[in-house]
Design brief:
By secondary structure, chain A is of the alpha/beta class. Chain A is built from nine helices and 16 strands. Chain A is globular, with a radius of gyration of 18 Å. Chain B is built from 16 helices and 16 strands. The termini of chain B are far apart. Classes of the chains: A alpha/beta, B alpha/beta. At the A-B interface, helix 1, strand 7, strand 14, helix 8 and helix 9 of A face strand 5 and helix 12 of B.
């Protein structure tokens, strides 16, 4: 069992947990993910590592409550234990000295972009960051991002905070202004990553995205997470989660994310009716 | 002696029309009377050929002798002297090609039902209460066993019984490997796997779940951290696909994914369990091995109306056990032999709507000795399905080899190891099971785990005066 040692509610539906997992913390690197199972009836879900503390032996995860499993996870408090917590999985971000880089985080994607920006800065890069969310209450970690960025732009879709724009607007402006950006990282919902990639493509700037697909084991066993990159089938869990956004087949990715939409709706509905009934009310 | 004239006792099974709608075990096991009567058929050979056929050399005539004398406790003890997982082996071993095929009775009559007796004795013990043997005095040696599947569990159990301190690392949240995620409940109830794994833990094995070696530690780090030996038993967990158009459409599963969702994650109990599964109405399973049979029969139980096995060769070449083919046929699985998929067809939303196939004919024998299937020109046709499950075999997961310098591998991704001892080319590292052979059987992996445990024990107790690695006599390339 893996104990939750701290919790922070970053937004009404966005939660941060610090989880006691020394063996994972010992090896975790930016860009990697963990598989979490909430309880013994739970499903295995991938969550990106938002931070790690090797000395304290903890991993920080941030998640948005969207479905049954994340809603259930959101009911957990410090001292509660998670049934399973496996990682660090996937390949780490390729941190190098590139020169100037851009880090774009959308919504809950701000969480995984943070350790990447921090590591890129530590590697001597000039880091331009853009973080955005639908509205002010979904934004978090602005200060943290400011600390690890040379420049930070904050946007909201509805203009409730920062600039009223999608993250791709400042992205395009910065590229058009001729900033010598060597590489871009964009993390957020699939549709945002698709447009971050489309925006940078005409400028020929390599754009790395971190894909969050459906997974079961997370170690290459099942292939639930398979996608197409440059026309080839790849497994997000072991070949990724980071890929070249210009080569990802986004339509396929988004179609595959919707495979269990009906079941997800059903599970959420059951959960809302009775959080502890385990679907037995309608089974 | 009238003994030989007693016919082999059939084992009661659920009727096909009933069992195709439930996940309960198909085979129901002997009653005590049937078990004793079957045990009485054994000739108690002085030089038992059956034992030679067993990868772990179970003391077959002796345990059957104890059954015959109604000393069931002794029967279980004798079984477990060589086999730490008898309730599992009694269910999933291909006895017909191992022990039973060598039974002297089989020459004129049918062989003794060794597997069914093994199952009965193990089940008896589980109900009566399992006795854990006292371990040998502690040797102070530490062994890391990686992968809690058949090979790892066997190796870990044997080493613990010999007094070594064993840490067993498992990547998933439940131990058992393929016994948990691959083989369905209706062939191998998970309570039985749990109970035999518990036995291994009671022998003193320290089981660490959710621990992916290659990620939390490399093999070299384990050796540096004070483990005297490392055994790799991580199996062959990576699914193969056909590389045909449409394979990534929604509704195409690897058999691994389909079975893992259903067996390990219990998707058949959704929404009581959170993992969903889509069995579809009309299902095509590609392949004709045991895994394909498991996937097809699982799809049926999940409510599919029509399930096809699509296989490019004929029934004679199908790699599944005969018993599993028959079970599937009885349950109404439709077999499309000499049929090869060439594309998965999708609808405008990215879901499977069919499988395009071509007819095949058998030509000259190929490298495997089986007649090579060749396409019949202009024979393409479409099968109307909404789910496709690829059961084409698996290969080893390379994760455990992260930074494992010195561990030589073949071009198939399997690790090079001495078949008798399990030694790899990296000193103090052994390997056994599917990671060495590619996908094979539970019992062959257990046999490899057992042989490696014996060599690890000899190495740890006596040191290794002989060279660590000697090139085996050149064999045919696999």
């Amino acid at each position: 069992m893996y104990r939750i040692v701290a919790r922070e509610d970053l937004a009404p539906v966005t939660k941060l947990f610090v989880v006691d997992a020394p063996e994972v913390a010992c090896k975790a690197e930016p860009g990697q993910f963990v598989i979490v199972v909430v309880d013994e009836h739970g499903e295995r879900i991938p969550l990106t590592v938002a931070d790690y503390d090797r000395r304290a032996g903890t991993i920080t995860i941030i998640f948005q409550e969207v479905g049954k499993t994340t809603r259930l996870l959101g009911t957990k408090r410090p001292g509660d234990e998670l049934y399973a917590f496996t990682g660090p999985l996937g390949l780490p971000t390729e941190i190098e000295h590139y020169g100037t880089v851009m880090c774009i985080g959308g919504g809950v994607g701000i969480a995984p972009i943070y350790p990447i920006a921090r590591a890129l800065r530590a590697a001597g890069n000039r880091v331009i960051s853009i973080i955005g969310a639908r509205s002010r209450d979904l934004l978090f970690w602005e200060e943290r991002m400011r600390e690890v960025s040379d420049e930070l732009v904050v946007t909201t879709d509805d203009g409730s905070y920062g600039r009223k724009a999608l993250v791709t607007v400042p992205e395009k402006e910065i590229l058009e202004a001729g900033a010598p950006v060597a590489r871009i990282w964009g993390i957020g919902p699939a549709v945002m990553m698709k447009f971050v990639s489309l925006t940078s493509k005409p400028f020929g700037v390599k754009t790395i995205v971190s894909l969050n697909t459906i997974m079961v084991d997370g170690t290459g066993m099942c292939g639930a997470c398979r996608i197409e990159v440059a026309g080839k089938t790849r497994f997000v869990c072991v070949d990724g989660p980071e890929f070249d956004g210009h080569e990802v087949n986004w339509d396929l990715l988004m179609a595959r994310q919707r495979i269990y939409l009906d079941e997800e709706k059903r599970a959420l509905l059951d959960f809302e009716k009775c959080p502890s009934c385990r679907g037995e009310t309608t089974a | 002696m009238p003994r030989e004239r007693i016919p082999r006792h059939e084992m009661p099974r659920q009727k096909p029309e009933v069992r195709r709608h439930n996940f309960e075990e198909v085979a129901l096991g002997y009653s005590q009377e049937e078990a004793i009567a079957e045990a009485k058929r054994c000739l108690q050979c002085k030089k038992p050929a059956c034992v030679e056929g067993c990868p772990v050399q179970v003391r077959i005539p002796e345990f059957i002798g104890a059954l015959r004398n109604e000393d069931f406790r002794r029967a279980a003890e004798l079984l477990k002297d060589r086999n730490n997982l008898p309730a599992i082996c009694g269910r999933v071993c291909p006895q017909e090609t191992q022990c039973e095929i060598r039974c002297i009775l089989g020459r004129k009559d049918e062989p003794v039902a060794i597997g069914r007796l093994e199952r009965w004795a193990a089940d008896w013990e589980r109900k009566a209460g399992v006795q854990v043997p006292a371990p040998a005095p502690a040797t102070g040696k530490r062994v890391a066993v990686i992968g809690a599947g058949p090979a790892g569990l066997t190796c870990a159990a044997d080493l613990a019984r010999l007094g070594h301190q064993v840490t067993l690392y498992e990547a998933l949240h439940e131990p058992g490997g393929v016994l948990m995620y691959g083989i369905p409940e209706f062939r191998l109830p998970k309570d039985i796997v749990r109970s035999e794994v518990d036995y291994v833990r009671q022998l003193g094995v320290d089981l660490r779940l959710n621990s992916v070696i290659g990620k939390i530690r490399t093999v070299h780090e384990l050796l540096e951290e004070g483990f005297d030996a490392v055994f790799l038993g991580t199996g062959a967990g990576l699914p193969m696909f056909m590389d045909i158009p449409g394979e990534n459409l929604s509704g195409v599963y690897s058999a691994n994914e389909f079975l893992t969702r259903n067996n390990l994650m219990k998707a058949y109990l959704f929404p009581q369990y959170d993992t969903p599964i889509k069995a579809g109405r009309r299902v095509a399973v590609v392949g004709a091995g045991n895994v394909a049979m498991d996937a097809s029969r699982t799809a049926l139980r999940l409510g599919a109306e029509e399930v096809h096995i699509v296989y490019r060769r004929s029934r004679d070449e199908a790699p599944a056990r005969k018993e599993e083919l028959e079970n599937a046929e009885e349950e109404g699985i439709i077999f499309d032999f000499l049929t090869n998929p060439v594309a998965v067809l999708g609808d405008d939303k990215g879901w499977v709507r069919g499988l395009r196939c071509q007819r095949m004919a058998l030509g000259e024998p190929d490298a495997s000795g089986r007649r090579r299937p060749v396409p019949i020109p202009d024979s393409e046709f479409d099968v109307d399905v909404d789910t496709v499950i690829m059961a084409l075999g698996t290969r080893p997961n390379p994760m455990v080899f992260a930074n494992a310098v010195g561990l030589e591998r073949t071009r198939h991704g399997t690790v090079v190891a001495n078949e008798e001892t399990g030694r790899t080319k990296l000193e103090r590292v052994w390997a056994g099971g599917d990671i060495v052979t590619g996908a094979a059987t539970v019992i062959s992996a257990m046999g490899a785990g057992k042989r490696a445990a014996a060599d690890i024990n000899a190495y740890l107790c006596n040191g290794s005066p002989e060279p660590w690695w000697e090139e085996p006599a050149p064999a045919t390339a696999s």
